[in-house]
Amino acid sequence: MYAASARFFTTLTESYTPITEVTLFRTDGRVETLDIIGGSVPVDRSQACRRTCTVTVPDPALIPRTAADKLSVYGAQLRIARGVQAGAYRELVPVGVFRLDGIEGDVDTGPVSLTGQSLECIIADDRFVTPYRATGTAIGAITALIVRSIPDAVVVSRVADAAIGPRTWDIEANPWEAVRELGAVVGAEVYCDAAGQFVIAALPDLLTTPPAWTVAAGERGVYVSAKRGMASRGVHNGVLARGESAETGTAPVAKLVVDSDPGSPTRWGGPFGRRPAFISSSALTTEAACEAAASLRLKQLMAPNATANLRSLANPALEAGDIIRVVYPSGPPDLVQAAAFGIDLGVNAGDFEVQAISAKEGT
Fold first, then answer.
1. Where is the DUF5047 domain positioned along the sequence (predicted)?
2. I need a labelling partner for 296 at 20 to 30 A (CA). Which of 85, 119, 267, 284 fits?
3. Hey, which residues does 258 pair with through a beta bridge?
């Protein structure tokens, strides 16, 4: 959750005017605040690019017609913020920094649609043209891959670093997939957050992480409705992580991590059975690193077995992966984890749907 003020979250439950600020940073140094008439920012932690955007503007002058115009928008960035205004009080939170990928509209009358992806796309598109070798530590190797494509990138690590075995990627390999593989060595996901920073962090644990937000029914609550479900397709209850480096002659290492919770419906060896998944990387050189990588992957693969789709008053400060406490009109509360949602950039506050996973009842 973005660290907005307490008043911001209180205002979300009251009458306010939603406000949006979209700033275009052209590659020639020009900075423009755009007048917009609509748009959205979908957020999905399962995607390589966690955030995308569509922004609608009325002015057709943004459509590039000359070579100079095209040059100024290729590689341009959009910074988008969304917030609240109530009387003299006004507060915005960032909802994404995006590479501008498309501009399309009626050249005479508009409107014009701008589309973009969060900054992971810059690294993913910068494919290796020679074999790329990573050594040293996981955080150091991740940072090197990111600044290779974005020299002024801000990289924030919230996990302990660990040594990696030498790992070489072939020509044409995707550097962002390399970043994600190295993140797994320290049990972390890597993503670009709403402020445009690259974050290396463990997936929050449903049972130990305090809720970032409460969606409650009743007076001054933000709850609108909810649906619950479950599915076993694509769910695994064990992960075997393996590592071996022929280059260093390190002995093979491996670690099997399983769902061992006696009360879990997906318990390893219980009615759900044994459904292992497998990962391997030469970057994994110790059993501890294998355990960290397997634990992260197990969280990801177990989570979809329980789902909850929430409809609540919109909260632009939410981040995918945040733990949400849901207090229903009746029945026990739940803890869920935000997986995907969309932030409307229009003039109405309204509500939004949060697709959640890892539902835990009675919490």
1. 39-165
2. 119
3. 238
Beta strand residue intervals within 315-350, DSSP E: 323-327, 334-344
Reading the block at residue 120, the tokens are 């992971």
Beta bridge partners of 310: 226, 354
pLDDT in tens, 204-225: 888 788 999 999 998 888 988 9
Number of domains in the chain: 4
User: DSSP character for 122?
Assistant: H
Residues 6+ apart with CB under 8 A from 60: 105, 106, 107, 108, 109, 110, 111, 112
Q: What is the pLDDT, as a whole number, of residue 18?
A: 95
> Which residue bears the tokens 């140094």?
29
- For 314, the token pair is 């919109």
Last residue of a domain, one of 118, 137, 166: 118
As given in the structure block, the two tokens for residue 349 are 């506050």
Ranges 16-30, 65-79, 99-113, 136-150: which has the least confidence: 65-79
**Amino acid, res. 224:** V
Domain identity same for 173 and 296: no
Task: Tell which of 67, 93, 118 closes a domain.
Answer: 118
Tell me how far apart the alpha carbons of residues 75 and 32 are, in angstroms, rounded to a whole number. 15
Please indicate, yes or no, if residue 93 is contained in any of the structural domains: yes
**Does residue 1 lie within any of the structural domains?**
no
Average confidence (pLDDT) over 152-177: 95
* Three-class SS state of 261: coil
- 22 and 86, same domain (yes or no): yes
- Which amino acid is located at 339 in the chain? A
Alpha carbon distance 140, 162 (integer Å): 9
Higher model confidence: residue 362 or residue 356? Answer: 356
The count of residues in the chain is: 363
- Comparing CA positions, the residue from 87, 82, 86 lying closest to residue 2 is 82
3-state secondary structure (DSSP) of residue 327: strand
What does the pLDDT look like over 94-127, one tens digit per residue?
999 999 999 999 988 889 999 999 999 999 999 9
**For residue 65, with 0-12 CB atoms within 10 Å meaning exposed, 13-18 middle and 19 or more buried, which class applies?**
exposed
Q: What is the number of helices (H) and of strands (E) in the chain?
A: 6, 21
